[in-house]
Design goal:
Blueprint lengths: L1 H34 L3 E2 L1 E8 L6 E7 L2 E6 L6 E5 L6 E6 L6 E7 L2 E6 L4 E6 L5 E6 L7 E3 L4 E4 L4 E5 L6 E6 L1 E2 L2 E2 L3 E7 L2 E6 L4 E5 L6 E6 L17 E7 L4 E6 L4 E7 L1
Parallel strand pairs: 1-20
Antiparallel strand pairs: 2-23, 3-4, 4-5, 5-6, 7-8, 8-9, 9-10, 11-12, 12-13, 13-14, 15-16, 17-18, 18-19, 19-20, 21-22, 22-23
Length: 266
């Protein structure tokens, strides 16, 4: 037994050290996983028809009414849409030189951005009567609000907060995840203290802390469109987030999508 004793005596420290190293690496891996940004999944609660010719740039629900902004030159519009049927109930067409972008409803007004003109339009919520316009530097992509400020994206990693009366910039945040800045932020929706932002040409929505700009979650909407809807007309990218606060329901669509989805985040 003396040889066994000597073997254990010599090797035991090495075995213990190796075990500690493995535990340490395992612990570090676990900590890294805990620090990682969660990726959320979803389930489809209900599917609704959506105009497959609508190049969706903005989507919003206010008091149960669905509003949509569409883009493309000579085809841009502001619409009121029946959720159940997808039928257009009311429409205002933009002049052909403007490319419509995001919209939000603030009080009795609808505010709509345009892409490269640096001009936003203001409408009466009920009649769609134009009430005025405002200007901003750079491009207009998505817009929402938190009840106090308008929240605007311009295709970069920056989100600006604007005064809803003067449209002057009040502050801005730079959006980043653990790898760095997150550019191409597009359509926005403010949901219970979090900014949801489509990332252009991806199937992801970033969940952003409005105070710090940090991404605190990703919503992965890969494969939300069923295969049969892809056969007739190739749809565009995911772009369109509407949250019905009264029903706590989220709706998702995209550019030229034939369907609009009520989803539940898991």
């Amino acid at each position: 037994m003396s040889w066994l004793y000597k073997y254990i005596s010599k090797c035991l420290p090495l075995i213990v050290l190796t075990g500690l190293i493995l535990l340490s690496f395992g612990g570090c891996a676990k900590i890294g996983m805990q620090r990682g940004i969660p990726v959320l999944s979803f389930r489809t609660v209900h599917t609704y028809p959506h105009d497959p010719t609508a190049f969706t740039q903005g989507l919003v629900i206010d008091n149960g009414v669905l509003y949509e902004s569409t883009g493309l030159y000579s085809r841009s519009s502001l619409r009121r849409v029946d959720l159940e049927s997808g039928k257009i109930l009311q429409q205002h067409n933009l002049p052909p030189q403007y490319f419509g972008e995001g919209i939000t409803v603030f009080g009795s007004r609808i505010i709509q951005l345009t892409w490269k003109f640096g001009v936003g339009f203001i409408y009466d919520k009920n009649t769609f009567e134009p009430l005025g316009s405002f200007t901003y530097p750079g491009e207009g992509w998505g817009i929402t609000h938190d009840g106090k400020s308008l929240i605007m994206s311009d295709g970069s990693a920056t989100i600006r907060f604007l005064n809803p009366n003067t449209f002057a910039e009040e502050r801005r945040i730079n959006v980043a995840d653990e790898t760095g800045p997150v550019p191409l932020l597009n359509e926005l929706e403010y949901v219970r203290g979090t900014i949801y932002a489509n990332v252009w040409e991806t199937n992801r929505i970033a969940l952003i802390d409005p105070g710090t700009g940090k991404v605190k979650g990703w919503l992965d909407l890969t494969d939300i469109l069923p295969e049969e809807s892809l056969s007739n007309r190739p749809p565009g990218v995911l772009n369109g987030i509407a949250y019905d606060a009264d029903k706590e329901a989220m709706y998702i669509t995209g550019k030229l999508w034939p369907l609009l989805f009520h989803i539940e985040i898991l």
